[in-house]
């Protein structure tokens, strides 16, 4: 791995600048309803960012341990989704924002099903859904999953666990209430005990950034290279984080920051910039909704500075079609870059202008295409199928990347444009 030169490290520079300036923000209070959390250092403040290549950037004490609390919720939801699938998990936990506090009784009238897996009620059900014969086995699976997301073996802060186990009657009440309507797939005491242990897992800001980066990277931990959950599960978790991750402030967060996120009363906050990075902030001073005040400030500024909002118009690096030629017998279009929906839509329009008379050929030169996503492959293969049905021959010139794409393997392919054109010319009927 190449170490970045300090003068080129603009990511660290940004984090250090934000850290230095926002340390002056001392609004908020420590969580004290779990007595042990009230002993946290109110000045603790750290930022950590992990890229899709597993490179780490940080400011402040990013190696300081604290308890994960509610930041565990999306990861245990991911585990339940990976084990049972979205249909089964959704029978037990909804996917709608509650618009209420994290510890609210947000249960669907009639069924008692909690609104979503990011609030306590939904998280207690999600925890109970994880497979395991005994409480210990279930917790071991959860700890193992959180550890694989973090890329190192995590452990439990026994003092925080004991503190919440002694005082967590509201969560117990939620569990008994759900159990009374058959909405909890375990005994209330087992479900809540496992949930308290899960919340007391000890992490650092650096761990949380790796965990967030794993979701950003489609479920593959960018530091260890391990596939922790399938890609579709990472997408499902990010969707629920985007709509429900910040409790009753989820709408304002999506509007102003525009990234899937999750906070916890231990002071941890993660945000995910899909395919870019995972970021974590630690600062235990919380606002009225239980969210770290500095965490919100950091993420608002960072999102604006780097234009990270999910709804931003994506950048297009270069025009898709580099060459189009309407021959009498053979039409040619050459494309470059990533072939996604927008690029394929452009390419097919240009192709329309060069399709020759019936029987003639079309050559798609994809040698400079660097990647083809599902939309690009579907659109190109459907269009070529249609052309062949109408009596044309479709031929590709493809590089190693596109050649390996099974979705385009049905067509006659050559490794150079010249060969493709010559092949077409040989099909031309003699005058
Ligand atoms: N263990 C905490 C609770 O259930 C987690 C809440 C949070 O982090 O928002 O009350």
Descriptive report:
The protein has helices at residues 10-22, 73-84, 86-92, 120-129, 135-150, 158-167, 169-180, 188-199, 205-216, 231-244, 250-256, 293-306, 341-352, 374-389, 400-403, 417-427; strands at 46-51, 56-60, 66-67, 155-156, 201-203, 261-263, 268-273, 277-282, 321-326, 330-339, 361-372, 393-397, 412-414. It is of the alpha+beta class and 431 residues long. The protein has a five-stranded antiparallel β-sheet with strand order 2-1-8-7-6. The longest helix has 16 residues, at 135-150. The chain is elongated and about 95 Å long. The model has no long low-confidence stretch (mean pLDDT 94). Bound molecules: glutamic acid. Residues 69-70, 102-103, 120, 164, 171, 199, 264-265, 290 line the site of glutamic acid.
Present the secondary structure layout.
Elements: H1 10-22, E1 46-51, E2 56-60, E3 66-67, H2 73-84, H3 86-92, H4 120-129, H5 135-150, E4 155-156, H6 158-167, H7 169-180, H8 188-199, E5 201-203, H9 205-216, H10 231-244, H11 250-256, E6 261-263, E7 268-273, E8 277-282, H12 293-306, E9 321-326, E10 330-339, H13 341-352, E11 361-372, H14 374-389, E12 393-397, H15 400-403, E13 412-414, H16 417-427
Parallel strand pairs: 10-11, 11-12, 12-13
Antiparallel strand pairs: 1-2, 1-8, 3-5, 4-5, 6-7, 7-8, 9-10
Bound molecules: glutamic acid.
The site of glutamic acid has 11 residues, from loops.
């Amino acid at each position: 791995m190449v170490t970045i030169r300090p003068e080129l490290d603009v990511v660290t520079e940004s984090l250090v600048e934000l850290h230095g300036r926002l340390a002056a923000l001392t609004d908020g209070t420590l969580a004290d309803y779990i007595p042990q959390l009230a002993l946290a250092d109110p000045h603790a403040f750290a930022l950590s960012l992990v890229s899709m290549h597993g490179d780490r950037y940080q400011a402040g004490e990013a190696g300081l341990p604290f308890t994960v609390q509610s930041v565990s919720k999306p990861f245990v939801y991911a585990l339940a989704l990976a084990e049972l699938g979205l249909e089964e998990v959704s029978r037990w936990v909804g996917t709608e924002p509650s618009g209420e506090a994290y510890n609210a009784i947000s249960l669907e009238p009639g069924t008692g099903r909690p609104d979503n897996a990011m609030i306590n009620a939904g998280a207690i059900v999600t925890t109970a859904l994880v497979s395991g014969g005994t409480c210990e086995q279930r917790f071991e699976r959860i700890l193992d999953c959180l550890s694989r997301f973090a890329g190192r073996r995590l452990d439990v802060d026994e003092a925080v666990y004991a503190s919440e186990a002694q005082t967590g009657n509201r969560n117990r009440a939620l569990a008994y209430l759900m159990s009374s309507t058959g909405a909890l797939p375990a005994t209330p005491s087992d479900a809540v005990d496992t949930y308290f242990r899960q919340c007391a897992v000890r992490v650092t800001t650096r761990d949380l950034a790796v965990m967030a980066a794993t979701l950003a990277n489609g479920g593959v931990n960018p530091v260890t290279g391990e596939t922790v959950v399938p890609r579709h599960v990472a997408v499902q978790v990010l969707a629920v984080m985007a709509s429900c991750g910040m409790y009753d402030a989820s709408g304002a967060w999506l509007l102003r920051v525009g990234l899937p996120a999750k906070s916890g009363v231990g002071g941890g906050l993660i945000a995910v910039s899909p395919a870019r990075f995972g970021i974590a902030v630690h600062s235990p001073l919380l606002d009225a909704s239980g969210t770290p005040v500095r965490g919100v400030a950091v993420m608002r500024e960072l999102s604006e500075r780097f234009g990270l909002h999910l709804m931003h118009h994506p950048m297009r690096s270069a025009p898709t079609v580099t060459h189009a030629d309407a021959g009498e017998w053979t039409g040619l279009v050459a494309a470059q870059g990533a072939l996604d929906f927008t690029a394929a839509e452009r390419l097919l329009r240009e192709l329309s202008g060069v399709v020759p008379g019936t029987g003639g050929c079309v050559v798609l030169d994809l040698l400079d295409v660097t990647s083809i996503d599902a939309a690009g492959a579907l659109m190109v293969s459907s269009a070529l199928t249609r052309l062949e049905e109408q009596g044309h021959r479709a031929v590709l010139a493809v590089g190693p990347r596109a050649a390996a794409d099974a979705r385009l393997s049905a067509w006659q392919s050559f490794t150079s444009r010249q060969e493709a054109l010559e092949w077409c010319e040989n099909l031309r009927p003699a005058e």
